[in-house]
């Protein structure tokens, strides 16, 4: 659904030249889209600033972070070791995964000694590598969105339960306070209804005595003459 006037053009991923390199219009759309995915609210932030690579071959030790330069998309390919996307071990980056894109707001974290190649979109020469990397990125993004939604639902439920407990505590405190100001002569000692106790307190403040209504007597049946 468009929120403002928008023009849409279709560029199939299969639209490549003989070398397998994406055409310029398609490439111009890929990088902005990857950057857009990296701006989703709730994505993890690195605990450290991270290494911004300026060479094609990177080596990291366990715990180190690598991110793309601002405004650039970096396609990483693991050579040795395992990394985690956005620092989450549930989203591993391995040599078997192939090339994987990192855009603004995204990073990888080394799980052990890590060596990998890195290159821009312009150097991704084969469409299968491009398509597979984009597909894997979307799997990880959608899984992250599901985790964020589950987390938010749990937090909302927890806040709701806390409000319920607070409301119950306040109600009990108010009832005890109102009951405490009653004159024992005004109401019988075996009052069971908090509502009656509260009514008695209000009546006393208004100068009106509130008493428990006596039990109703069952009328006697008329005697047969």
Task: Tell me what the structure shows.
The chain is α+β, with helices and mostly antiparallel strands. It has a domain at 24-151: Sandwich (Jelly Rolls). The protein has helices spanning 24-37, 127-180, 194-206, and strands at residues 57-60, 65-67, 74-80, 83-85, 92-93, 100-102, 107-110, 114-119. The strands form 2 sheets. Strands 1-8-3-6 form a 4-stranded antiparallel sheet. Strand 4 (83-85) and strand 5 (92-93) form a beta hairpin. Helix 2 packs across helix 3 (194-206). The longest helix has 54 residues, at 127-180. The chain starts with 23 loop residues before the first helix and ends in a 19-residue tail after the last helix. 19% of the residues are buried.
CATH class of the domain at 24-151: Mainly Beta
Which value, in Å, is the CA radius of gyration?
A: 35 Å
**Unreliable segments of 5+ consecutive residues:** 16-20, 183-191
Number of H/I helices:
3
**Can you write the helix and strand succession as a string?**
HEEEEEEEEHH
**E-strand count:** 8
What is the topology, as strand order, of the major beta sheet? 1-8-3-6
Salient structural properties:
225 residues, 36% helix, Jelly Rolls, alpha+beta
What is the structure about, briefly put?
This protein has 225 residues and is of the alpha+beta class. Helices cover 36% and strands 14% of the residues.
Topology:
Blueprint: H1 24-37, E1 57-60, E2 65-67, E3 74-80, E4 83-85, E5 92-93, E6 100-102, E7 107-110, E8 114-119, H2 127-180, H3 194-206
Antiparallel strand pairs: 1-8, 2-7, 3-6, 3-8, 4-5, 4-7
Helix pairs in contact: 2-3
């Amino acid at each position: 659904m468009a929120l403002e006037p928008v023009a849409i053009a279709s560029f199939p991923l299969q639209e490549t030249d003989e070398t397998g390199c994406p055409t310029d219009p398609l490439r111009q759309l890929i990088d902005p889209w990857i950057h857009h995915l990296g701006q989703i609210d709730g994505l993890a932030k690195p605990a450290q600033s991270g290494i911004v690579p300026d060479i094609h071959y990177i080596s990291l030790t366990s715990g180190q972070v690598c991110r793309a330069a601002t405004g650039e998309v970096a396609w990483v390919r693991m050579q040795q070791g395992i990394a985690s996307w956005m620092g989450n071990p549930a989203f591993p980056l391995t040599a078997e995964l192939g090339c994987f894109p990192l855009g603004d707001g995204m990073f990888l974290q080394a799980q052990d000694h890590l060596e990998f190649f890195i290159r821009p979109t312009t150097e991704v020469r084969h469409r299968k590598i491009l398509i597979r990397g984009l597909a894997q990125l979307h799997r990880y993004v959608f899984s992250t969105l599901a985790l964020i939604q589950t987390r938010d639902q749990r937090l909302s439920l927890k806040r709701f339960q806390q409000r319920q407990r607070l409301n119950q505590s306040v109600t009990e405190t108010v009832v005890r306070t109102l009951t405490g100001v009653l004159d024992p002569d005004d109401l019988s000692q075996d009052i069971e209804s908090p509502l009656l106790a509260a009514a008695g307190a209000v009546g006393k403040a208004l100068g009106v005595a509130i008493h428990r209504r006596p039990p109703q007597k069952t009328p006697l049946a008329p005697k047969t003459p």
